[in-house]
Design goal:
Layout lengths: L1 H16 L4 E6 L2 E4 L47 E4 L3 E6 L9 E7 L18 E6 L12 H5 L7 E6 L7 E11 L7 E12 L32 H4 L15
Parallel strand pairs: 3-9
Antiparallel strand pairs: 1-2, 1-4, 4-7, 5-6, 5-8, 8-9
The protein binds copper (II) ion.
């Protein structure tokens, strides 16, 4: 009974108060400003913002929504993050409170300049995973999801670090951080944000077809890991959750 109560309470509080997204990024000791959906409108022309525009922190519910790529409206950023292939980038979230579901970092080439790259036409981008974090112990309902470890209840920022594959060829790329929250039965929530990267280094590679997907396109309600009821007793007690989509490309 307590467990049911706790789950219900969690559902209510998280839905009334809290959604969120990636707000800033760091590479080494350098900090880069993302777009604040509740910030001033002069952000639209601010020359230092590296993140594509998003104006609401509500989740996206539809796997076919064009805004699934880079949130809504997803306008290009003015600046980009210079990063050497093989180094780490950390996305910083504030007040993240959801606990169940996978987190996936993606990239796509901008096929030239990210400043003119339109992600609302899904055919333009070919996304590949550079890292993903899922269930790291315990069961699906109450286990040790990275998303749970990542959530902070004391106001300190939540940090998510991934590595740019070392052999990736230089160029302009988008990095897309996606949190999928599965605490509503059969109603997955998608929280994507994109930033502009200028990848440097001596890499010469780009992932092959088996690593590349379209967004929207990669997720569907036919996938049992996406269209999931984590409170269903059989599902709740499973100790394995296979993150769907293509394999991670590590370079
Ligand atoms: Cu939320």
């Amino acid at each position: 009974m307590w467990q049911i109560f706790a789950a219900t309470l969690g559902y209510l509080t998280t839905h009334v108060y809290a959604h969120g997204g990636a707000l800033n990024y760091t590479v080494g000791d350098t900090w880069y400003a993302g777009y604040d959906p509740f910030g001033p409108s002069n952000q639209d022309t601010a020359p230092y913002i590296v993140q594509r525009k998003w104006i609401t922190n509500e989740p996206i519910f539809e796997t076919t929504n064009a805004s699934l790529a880079c949130n809504f409206p997803g306008n290009p950023a003015s600046a980009s993050i210079p990063i050497t292939a093989g180094s780490n980038i950390t996305a910083i979230y504030y007040s993240w409170v959801h606990t169940v579901g996978p987190m996936i970092a993606w990239m796509t080439s901008c096929n030239g300049a990210c400043s003119t790259f339109d992600t609302t036409n899904a055919t333009n981008a070919s996304w590949f995973k550079i890292g993903e974090k899922g269930l790291q112990g315990g069961n699906i309902l109450e286990g040790n999801w990275f998303q749970k470890t990542f959530s902070r209840w004391d106001g300190t920022p939540s940090l998510w670090t991934e590595t740019i594959p070392e052999s990736l060829k230089p160029g302009e790329y988008l990095i897309r951080h996606e949190i999928i929250s599965l605490h509503s039965a059969n109603r997955p929530q998608f929280y994507p944000e994109c930033a502009h990267l200028r990848v440097e280094g001596d890499g010469e590679r780009y992932p092959d077809e088996k690593h590349l997907v379209k967004i929207p396109g990669v997720w569907s309600m036919d996938q049992p890991e996406i269209n999931i009821d984590v409170y269903d007793p059989d599902t709740a007690m499973k100790t394995e959750y296979k993150i769907p989509g293509p394999p991670v490309w590590s370079g």
